[in-house]
Structure formats: C-alpha cells, structure tokens
Specification:
The structure holds 2 protein chains of 2 kinds. By secondary structure, chain A is α+β, with helices and mostly antiparallel strands. Helices cover about 20% and strands about 40% of the residues of chain A. In chain B, the strands form 6 sheets. Chain B has a 5-stranded mixed sheet, covered by helices on one side. Chain B has a 5-stranded mixed sheet with strand order 2-4-10-9-6. In chain B, strands 17-18-23-20-21 form a 5-stranded antiparallel sheet, with no helix packed on it. Classes of the chains: A alpha+beta, B mainly beta.
C-alpha cells in the first residue's frame, strides 16, 4: 500500500501544480498581465482578463465582480488608440485624421462617452457610442457645433482602450464602442459590372 | 426672302442627312426595341411559358456587362451576357456575369460587419427542388463580414433568386434584392435558300456564280432561333438583320509589331493592338487555335472564329497552345461594310451586293457576314467568314427546241 500510495500522492501533486499553472496562465492572459482582483460581467458573460477586439455597445452595463471582497472603488478611463488603417471623420465639414489629429494630442476620451459608475452597485454603464462621443469631443475641444460624420465605418482594428480599475487591478478592454445597428440598406448608387470566367 | 428660304432648306437638308447617316451607322444602339423591330422588319417569335412575366414589363434594373447603373430593388442578369455568340462549339458553357453590391449598416458607428447569402424565392418550386442556388448565382466577399460583395450569375435559372444581406450584430437587420434572369438565345441558324447554311463562328464556303443569268446557291433567309428554357423573364420576339463587310487587312503568320506590342509573361503572350488604323470601326480577329482575349480583370476563351476587339485591346495566348504559323489576323472595319439584302442572299454577279464585290473578288476571298439578333433586351451578334471557295458558271436553260429530224 505504501508502495502504491507515494507515487499516487506525487501524481496528484503534479496534476494540481499543472492545474494551478494553467489557471495562472489563463488568469494572466498568458502571463502578460497580472492576476486580476475582479472579473467583469456583461449580460451574463464574464471577462476575466485583458482582451482585444472587444465590442462594447452604447448602453452596456458592466458589473464588477471582486474575488475577495464585496466592493472597492471603481474608476474608468477610455483611451484612443492608433489604428493601422487611419480612421477619418468630418467635423463641421473639415476632415480629421484619427491617427494624426486625435490620438497624439488627446489621450482621454472618458468624459465624452457618458460613463456612469455606481460605486454602491459595483457597475459601470457606458451611455454613448463612438459617433456621439466624437460629437461631445468636437464640442468640447474643437469648438464645433457637433456636426460630425464618418467618412466610412469604424476602423477594423481596436480604436479604444476601456480601462476599468478597482482594488489596484486594471482590466483593459481593447476594441470598439459601437451603436446597436438599427437599419441595413443595399446601396442605390452606381454599380460596377464585371465579367469573368472562361467559355 | 427666297435666298433665306434656300439657306434654311439647305440647313434642314444637311441636318436630316446627318441624322440619317448617324442612324444608319449605329442603328441598333440608337433605337428602342420596337423602333428597331419596325426598321428591320424581320421578326422571329419564339415560344415562351405564358406563366412567366415578360422582360418588357420588368421595372427593375437590368445589369449589363461593362456598365454602371443605379441600383433598384430588383435586378436581372441578361442572358446574352452569359451566352456568348462567338463560338458554336461551346454550347452550354457559360461565361459569368457579376455585379458589385455594397451595403451600409446604420447608424454609421454601428458594427458594419454583414453576412451575405442567396436563396431561391420559392425553394420548393418544381424547378428549384433538388437544386443548389449557388450553382446559379453566388455571392462572395474578399474579406469576412465585408459590406462589399460580388454577385455572380453562373448559368441561366428559372426560379427568382433573393440576395440577402444581414447585420452580423442583429440578424433581424437586413435588406434584400431580387434577381431575375432574362431568357437567353441558345442557338441561331441562318440558311439562305435550301443550300447555303451559314456556319457561325467559322468559315462558310460558298460557290460564287459568275454567270449573270445563272442560278447560284442561296435564296431567301430562313432564320431559326432556339431558346434556353431556364429563365424568369421571357423575351419572346427577336428582330434580326444581316450585313457583310470586306476585310481591310488580312495576314497569316506571326504577329506584326507594327500593329502593337508583343509581350511574353508567365507562359502567356500578350499582344496589344495599338495601331490607330485599327480603331476606325469594328474589327475581328481570327485564329485557328484557342485563344484568349480581354482586358485586365477578365478573360474570355474563344475556341475558334472571331473576336470582336472593338473594345478589347489585348489578345492573350497560352504559350503551350500557340503556334504562330497557324494564326490569321483579319481586321474588318464596319465603316466600310455594305448591307446585303436582308432577306435574301444569292452569291451571283446578278445580285446587287455581290456585283459590288466583283472588282475585288477572287478565290479564297474572305468576307465577314454579321448577323444581328435583338430581343427586347438581349442582343446577339453572330459572324461567319464567307469564303469564296469556287466559281460556277451555270447558264440558265430557258427553252428546249426539238429539231426537225426527230423521229418517233
């Protein structure tokens, strides 16, 4: 029994160590970030680590779920990020470049997204999507009346970092802050007709 | 006052003449179908399914090769764009016709990623049952979720197809177009008289009667049109006309660099027509081997016969197939063409048009016969090289007189 017991204990210990390592790896996003002291929950889905290509929608509410306490102070910061393919938009008819005119000079967009933090309920709510935030930004920083339009849709790469901090830990959601789609139209404009294929 | 009247009359005459001239040079392009049908006065009716709507009543957008259009809720691919007429050996092989479609998701800062699909409007119809819609129309995007898609019509279809675009964020947010197919001509045959069938897409050997009083081959035109049975929009009447043009240039052998550049790249010869002298009208190129023609972005393989290079400046040849000793380069300028009798062709010197050719005619002369068939929306052009293979001299025996020494 002794001969069987020792290797079995060793095996169990090994499995536990591996399990802990895997948990740490997952919990630290591949050891790239520290272990978070909280998770975020949106519509029943949890976010445990920093993440990229994340879609946030106007009206989203995130619940901050601490692992070892009921609550702690929560703060939020939204940072614009350069994109590989530049994102362009008009303010009062003047074209702006996201990469050249915005990101290098304005590092905090938090106030334009209508963020509300309920410290009692441990929740973070995001009111505005990108276009509304740009309008708020244009009014505040560019002296605009808020006439903002996009040249095309939002860029394909992450354009904002949403940083939610609590209990000395920061969760970073890199991605987009979208409106919910309410209409889709196939274009009425000019089509290009092609021919291809062999006879 | 009289002088003024003369001037006005002169100007009016000049204007009328000019308009007439323009009308003659490009009759098809300038006329609505009904006017064209009236002008050529040669109409063939083809049987259609009475339950299918007529293309004449279609209020959507017919999308054409090389065109650019304002989109509408309904679009229709044109049969003649899928079914080429340059070769008779490629029956049931179809080119592909495609359109580029774009979608926009609102508001502008919503996720623009979309999904595209095609489906039969009535997948349980007799025709559609058991068939895969993507064998007929496909929709593709270069990148997943792209708002720009290419819709390609691959072959004729008989059940209306629906193009659907849906937001990836919310499947209830979508838009669609209906896609129709305008009935296509499957084949056309033209025979003059009972003994002169025209070989479209190749050469037609013709015996030319030299005796002004002789009886040659040919006669009244007999036109037969066979239609594809798969369509959603019927096109039931076709008007036709015919003309024949002289070659303006003919050469057999290797590419003449005075015509343009000749470049070899990755197994393909590219021969670019650059000479201005070839741009004064419609031209044809003939090869005895398969060849490709086309501008960048598409290619078209033609197994034999003619290539209308009016809008095409580059011919492409597969190096494994090419043997320049088998090439024939023949350029025709439609500007010098003469219309033959539309309803009758008898290749004798007694025929008005054939008499005109008298001065230049010799054995193995090649004339280009063009045959235009136009439906409400579809337009086809067939060609054949009329080769003077031999001359005959068949005097007409007008009477027989029995001699006095006949004994019974």
């Amino acid at each position: 029994m002794k001969k069987i017991g020792r290797p079995l204990i060793g095996l169990i210990a090994f499995v536990l160590i591996v399990a802990i390592a895997v948990a740490l790896y997952v919990g630290t996003n591949g050891f790239q970030s520290g272990l978070k002291s909280f998770a975020l929950m949106r519509d029943g889905s949890y976010v445990y680590n920093d993440t990229t290509a994340y879609k946030v929608y106007a009206g989203d509410v995130f619940a901050v779920k601490h692992y070892d306490k009921d609550k702690d102070d929560i703060s939020v910061k939204i940072v614009p990020v350069k994109t590989k393919e530049d994102f362009r938009f008009y303010v009062d008819g003047l074209e702006y470049s996201w990469n050249s005119n915005i990101v290098p000079y304005y590092t905090d967009f938090t106030s334009y997204f209508g963020i509300s933090v309920d410290q009692g309920a441990n929740t973070v709510a995001i009111k505005n999507a990108t276009l509304s935030a740009l309008k708020e930004f244009a009014r505040a920083k560019l002296g605009s009346s808020g006439e903002v339009s996009l040249v095309s849709g939002l860029p394909k790469e992450d354009m904002f970092r949403v940083e939610i901090t609590s209990d000395d830990s920061t969760m970073v959601l890199s991605g987009w802050i979208y409106s919910k789609p309410d209409k889709l139209e196939l274009a009425d404009e000019t089509l290009i007709i092609n021919m291809k294929g062999d006879l | 006052m009289k002088a003024l009247k003369k001037i006005v009359a002169g100007v009016l005459t000049a204007v009328v003449s000019l308009v007439s001239l323009v009308g003659c040079t490009d009759k098809q392009a300038g006329l609505e179908y009904d006017e064209y049908k009236e002008s050529v006065n040669n109409v063939v009716e083809v049987p259609v399914d009475e339950d299918k709507p007529s293309v004449a009543d279609f209020d959507g957008q017919i999308v054409r090769t090389g065109g650019a259009y304002n989109f509408s809720k309904n679009m229709a691919f044109l049969g003649s764009d899928l079914v080429r007429t340059t070769s008779t050996t490629t029956e049931d092989a179809f080119a592909e016709s495609s359109v580029t479609v774009t979608a926009t998701v609102y508001p502008a800062d919503a996720n623009q990623n979309v999904d595209w699909r095609v489906e039969f409007m009535n997948a349980s119809s007799t025709w559609a049952t058991g068939k895969s819609v993507t064998d007929y129309v496909s929709v593709t995007t270069e990148t997943a979720g792209s708002t720009t898609a290419t819709v390609t019509c691959k072959r004729p279809f008989a059940e209306q197809i629906k193009l659907v675009c849906t937001s990836q964020e919310n499947a209830e947010i979508s838009d669609y177009r209906t896609i129709d197919f305008v009935q296509a001509v499957k084949s056309v045959s033209l025979t003059f008289g009972e003994d002169l069938p025209i070989n479209f897409g190749g050469e037609t050997s013709v015996s030319w009667e030299v005796n002004p009083n002789g009886i040659g081959v040919g006669g009244d035109a007999n036109v037969q049109i066979e239609m594809y049975q798969d369509y959603t929009l019927a096109d039931n009447t076709y008007a036709w006309e015919c003309d024949m043009i002289d070659p303006t240039y003919f050469e057999t052998g290797e590419w003449n660099t005075s015509w343009g550049s000749e470049i070899y790249d990755a197994g393909i010869w590219y021969m670019s027509i650059e000479s201005d002298s070839f741009y004064d009208g419609k031209m044809y190129f003939k090869s005895n081997i398969p060849f490709y023609s086309g501008a960048s972005g598409y290619s078209e393989r033609l197994d034999l016969g003619f290539c209308d290079i009016f809008n095409i400046t580059t011919l492409k040849f597969d190096s494994e197939l090419i043997d320049t000793s088998y090439l024939s380069f023949i350029f025709y300028s439609s500007g010098v063409g003469a219309q033959i009798n539309k309803e009758r062709f008898v290749p004798t010197f007694s025929d008005n048009y054939c008499a005109k050719l008298n001065s230049s005619m010799q054995e193995n002369s090649l004339y280009c016969l063009r045959f235009f068939v136009r439906g409400t929306k579809n337009t086809y052009e067939y060609t054949s090289l009329i080769k003077v293979s031999e001359f005959t001299n068949n005097p007409v025996v007008k009477s027989v007189t029995l001699g006095d020494n006949v004994k019974f």
